[in-house]
Specification:
The complex is a heterodimer of chains A (270) and B (753). Chain A is an alpha/beta fold. Chain A contains 12 helices and 9 strands. Chain A folds into 2 domains: 175 residues, 3-Layer(aba) Sandwich (Rossmann fold); 88 residues. Chain B has 30 helices and 19 strands. The chains are: A alpha/beta (270), B alpha/beta (753). The structure holds adenosine-5'-triphosphate and magnesium ion.
Chain lengths: 270, 753
């Protein structure tokens, strides 16, 4: 028990994370929590979904347990399994069970990456039953009021195959995230990337340009995260052109012509 | 070199050929008194040309002494290269003519070739300018640089410097500067206003001078704007381009301070401008506060001054500023307006036709009252922003849109309303004209249906194979035997640039699709938790041991196996060619098929494409575009292009026929993917529940034959009957036809992986 509590405490967020809201997402999420409703965050990569969850967890003073989903993720990885300790079989809670047992927030990042037979375990948790059956132990956990489940996915590059099943999707309160408005994004980059206002604005402008290249073969433009990372390189004394190249241009594409064009945008702006 | 040596060397070079002695002597004679270097050069090229053409080789030797007056020895190999290229592409005559006559021209081209051709630079420049402009601008070639706001025209080659980077920079500057005019609204905001600007220039004695003055003033605005927006580019331009332009010697004509300000270093812009403009104006320009109407006002002032002093210097512009071609801007704007309008009109007509017959008839009522004949005049359409709101709303744009057709108010779907407002923003007026033509279209279609109902003949087309199919009658829960006759025929190929244009339009998407579909080709991967396999799955093993310890039955799925996924898929695409698909829908359908075909070629799955339409049970039609095993060649492409809306949607027989085709095909998975815009409906009693039930049955028959039917429906909203007809997970509906080309390959990918 003590061990479990320790495991949980590591997930408490003590310091207030920086999060700049772009609409009423905080109010909606708080209301969802109050009513025991699960949360679905959708939006492109690096637009602040994870950060938002951290902020929410801090605000609710609840531990945040994050699971990054992948196609090898099994039900046992989420719920838990028996392990052998000094010759004895010991049950160990998985992250989901842990969160349910102690009323924490469980955040399944990129849920569509997980196989569909894995994601069904959250179904009884994500509707008004709010319960988690642990078959191997014959246990049925009822989630305390504080427990919240939230999942994220990026509709941009998912095919229908990886789309959420309607039966999964229709259990959630959905929040749609997008890159913030230019002014706000500049403020975030300024703060998080520790750059001057001028640089922040120019980086955001550059990001805007890359985001309009869908028809030219760039599926996703530069994310807020990339802008911040560029800023961080700058802070360590790398010059602006090199920083942009390494942190902003190269991560976006391998196509030499697109890279060339992106580099030209960089040299036009800076 | 002695003639005998020359001849001997020549014979050695062309061996084992033994050319005629006289010919050889004739061409080699002139070399007798030439230096060894020249002789070597001449002989050196013989082995290159001789095997290609003997007579070209003689010509070369004959013409070389003369050519060497203009060409240096080092330039000879390239000259020969060009000649041989010509020989290969255009034949001997052309090559001879080139050697004989075109030397001068060739030389002048050679000198130009230090430059940078657009063809080399454009691969980077196109995504560059699209990113900068955040708009899908195009780049095209013209002697002078200009823009019509949709396309930016630049010269075929830039030869400003011997340095590649500088030439590239100049291209960049040209494109960016032209975009600057667009971004700074120099052409004013709508085709009509642009026309007013042209009229304004025409009101001067020299419209050219007025236009040049205006353009120079606008160039200052653009310069200041770019200083702000793209400082990196402007710094580079100052250093590598403006400096050179400032160098007076480059320009025999003296330049006005106004022009010099355009290429000045940023600190000097102000002082140069102050020589021409009065104080407040000068400030407005350097601080980026001036607007196009300021430039118009100042144009008038400066024009007077320059006319008095006959100052021609204001006529000059720099190459990157290019010229203003307002006529072309107006045309491009109008084309866009027309295009958007037609899209809107198609969308609107589709919407009107989706209304119930009664509603539509009510809308059209007055038309028919007024005109007693069959002539349908344009309906009486009004479209206004609600004036009560217009006063209070922040902008006109926020005001609600009121549309009436023949005094009947109609609710526009949100998409149409937004489209109309975008139109308003762009062109300064509402697209009432197009809505009205949509009403006309819809009315016309209705009328046609009425006329057809009175004609009773069902001619059987010639040259078609006819097959009979049963049809399901839900009322008696049984089949009507041999109820429908299906005519199978090929579509007539149409030659056009449709396929190429589509590939251009979706260039980015095609690249992505190719990549994605490549990844789907047969591949190997590990599967865990198997009963047998090549390796032990340790996670599973540990879990199983632990479970056993805990008193639970341990799993025996403890192995990992390498699995090879062979794709062995055959799919038929069935395209609804009914009348209701006209306009956008048809275009989107075809575009999607083009993209699909491209992707399928990469993937290697077998696929066929057929269209269907027809009228009445006696004339259902099934059109061949591509058979399953046919290759995706020109004929297929041309047939694909010719897919066009025809008559009605009797879905049952088409699905039954596709099932029949697939039944004889051996594949791991067989699919029929139907593309339609809604309900099955034929002219006769094939509608409503009867049509739905028959289609449903046809689909069930396919499933029984182990064929997966899937339907992609383009419709405003998912309809109740869809689920019943196709079964819950066997269809997808797309509410915005423009999304179809993107969605369809995605859907296919999902279905088959
Ligand atoms: N609204 C915001 N307020 C504060 N920071 C933000 C905001 N949006 C983005 N960020 C910054 O962007 C970075 C990336 O955001 P985050 O990691 O939350 O992205 P994500 O949406 O979870 O992306 P992914 O889908 O790739 O996991 C954060 O580290 C944070 O610095
Ligand atoms: Mg994240």
């Amino acid at each position: 028990m003590k061990q479990q509590n320790q495991r949980l405490e590591e997930h408490l967020i003590i310091e207030k994370p920086y999060y700049l809201p772009s609409g009423s997402e905080i109010e909606i999420a708080l209301a969802a929590h109050k009513n025991g409703l699960p949360l679905l965050l959708k939006g492109p990569t690096g637009c602040g979904k994870t950060r938002f969850m951290q902020f929410l967890a801090w605000k609710l003073k609840l531990p945040l347990i994050t699971v990054s989903c992948h196609d090898d993720l099994s039900t046992s990885d989420l719920v838990g399994r028996y392990l052998i300790r000094s010759g004895e079989a010991v049950w160990t809670d998985g992250p989901l069970t842990l969160a349910v047992r102690y009323g924490a927030i469980c955040y399944l990042d990129e849920i569509v990456e997980a196989r569909k037979d894995t994601t069904v375990v959250i179904h009884p948790l994500a509707d008004d039953r709010r319960e988690l059956p642990i078959e191997k132990r014959g246990e049925l956990l009822n989630a305390p009021p504080d427990f919240m489940i939230s999942v994220s996915y990026n509709p941009g590059y998912q095919s229908v195959l990886k789309d959420l099943k309607p039966s999964t999707r229709q259990r959630f309160v959905a929040l749609s995230f997008d890159y913030p408005s230019p002014e706000m994004e500049a403020e975030i980059v300024l703060r998080e990337g520790n750059v001057t206002q001028d640089i922040a604005r120019s980086l955001v402008k550059l990001a805007g340009m890359t985001r309009s290249l869908k028809e030219s073969g760039l599926a996703e433009g530069a994310s807020t995260r990339l802008l911040i990372q560029t800023g961080q390189l700058l802070g360590s004394g790398i010059d602006i052109h090199t920083a942009c190249r390494a942190a902003l241009v190269e991560p976006l594409s391998d196509d030499p012509e697109l890279l060339g064009a992106l580099q030209e945008m960089v040299s036009s702006i800076f | 070199m002695r003639p005998a040596t020359l001849t001997k060397r020549f014979y050695d070079l062309v061996a084992p050929d033994i050319p005629n002695e006289w010919d050889v002597e004739e061409v080699l004679d002139p070399f007798a008194d030439k230096s060894d270097a020249i002789c070597e050069a001449a002989l050196g090229h013989v082995p290159v040309i001789w095997p290609v053409s003997h007579s070209l080789c003689y010509d070369f030797l004959r013409l070389l002494p003369e050519a060497l007056h203009t060409l240096s020895l080092e330039q000879i190999p390239r000259w020969i290269g060009t000649t041989l290229d010509l020989y290969e592409t255009k034949g001997l005559r052309a090559a001879q003519r080139f050697m004989q006559d075109d030397l001068k021209e060739y030389l002048s081209k050679l000198e130009g070739s230090g430059g940078l051709p657009l063809s080399v630079a454009s691969k980077q420049l196109l995504p560059y300018i699209r990113g900068i402009a955040r708009d899908d601008l195009r780049i095209s070639v013209s002697r002078q640089c200009y823009t019509d706001t949709r396309t930016i025209f630049v010269p075929e080659e830039v030869n400003f410097s011997t340095n590649y980077d500088t030439n590239f920079l100049l291209y960049k500057l040209m494109l960016t500067f032209q975009w600057g005019f667009i971004a700074c609204n120099s052409f004013l905001s709508s085709p009509n206003k642009t026309q007013d600007l042209q009229d304004f220039f025409n009101s001067f004695k020299s419209p050219l001078l007025a236009s040049a003055i205006y353009q120079n003033l606008e160039s200052i605005r653009v310069r200041v704007f770019l200083n702000q927006e793209l400082p990196g580019l402007m710094k580079a331009a100052e250093k590598h381009i403006f400096d050179k332009l400032q160098d007076e010697s480059q320009h025999p004509v003296p330049q006005s301070p106004l022009q010099l300000a355009i290429i000045a270093n940023r600190e000097d812009i102000n002082s140069l401008l102050a020589k021409t403009l009065c104080n407040p104006d000068c400030k407005a320009y350097t601080e980026g506060l001036a607007a196009p109407h300021d430039s118009m006002r100042i144009t008038e002032l400066l024009y007077k001054d320059s006319e008095q002093g006959e100052d021609e210097s204001l006529l000059n512009t720099f190459s990157f500023q290019g010229v203003f071609k307002l006529g072309q801007v107006v045309t491009a704007g109008k084309i866009k307006e027309q295009k958007m309008g037609e899209e809107l009109s198609d969308l609107m007509a589709t919407y009107l036709l989706s209304l119930s017959k009664k509603e539509l008839a009510a809308l059209m009522q007055e038309d028919q009252d007024k005109k007693s004949g069959n002539n349908l005049a344009e309906s009486d359409v009004t479209m206004v922003m609600d004036s009560e709101f217009a006063g209070t709303a922040k902008q006109d744009i926020d005001a609600p849109l009121l549309v009436t057709i023949n005094n009947q108010e109609i609710d526009l779907p949100q998409e149409l309303e937004e489209f109309s407002k975008t139109f308003f923003k762009e062109f300064g007026h509402l697209p009432a004209k197009f809505i009205s033509s949509a009403a006309g279209k819809a009315g016309h279609l209705m009328l046609e249906q009425d006329i057809e109902s009175s004609s009773k003949t069902d001619p059987t087309p010639e040259g078609a194979t006819n097959i009979s199919y049963d049809e399901w009658d839900y009322r008696r829960q049984g089949y009507r035997k041999n109820w429908c006759t299906l005519h199978c025929k090929s579509l007539t190929p149409v030659h056009s640039s449709f396929i190429r244009n589509t590939l251009d339009k979706y260039h980015g998407l095609t690249i992505r699709l190719r990549h994605q579909f490549e990844m789907m080709r047969s591949q190997e991967h590990f599967v865990k938790r198997q009963r047998e396999g090549d390796d032990i799955d340790f996670d599973a093993l540990v879990e199983s041991i632990s479970d056993t310890k805990a008193g639970l039955p341990g799993s025996d799925r403890l192995f990992i196996r390498l699995q090879r996924d062979e794709r062995d898929i055959a799919v038929l695409f069935l395209v609804d060619m009914s009348n209701s698909t006209s306009g956008w829908i048809n275009t989107a359908l075809k575009e999607s098929l083009v993209l699909m075909a491209e992707a399928m070629e990469v993937l290697g799955d077998r696929y066929g494409i057929y269209g269907f339409s027809g009228m009445r049970r006696s004339r259902c039609e099934f059109f061949h575009v591509k058979h399953l095993n046919e290759s995706y060649g020109d004929k297929v492409k041309e047939r694909l292009t010719s897919i066009a809306p025809s008559e009605y949607t009797r879905m049952g027989p088409a699905i039954r026929h596709a099932t029949k085709i697939l039944q004889d095909v051996d594949a791991k998975a067989r699919l029929i993917i139907t593309l339609t815009d809604g309900k099955p409906e034929d002219y006769d009693d094939y509608k409503g529940q009867y049509a739905i039930e028959d289609t449903r049955h046809a689909l069930l028959e396919a499933k029984t034959a182990d064929i997966h039917p899937f339907c992609i429906t383009i419709d405003q909203e998912a309809k109740e009957y869809m689920k019943h007809m196709y079964g819950p997970a066997n269809y997808i509906f797309i509410d915005d036809v423009r999304k179809l080309p993107v969605r369809m390959p995605e859907i296919y990918r999902a279905l088959t992986s």
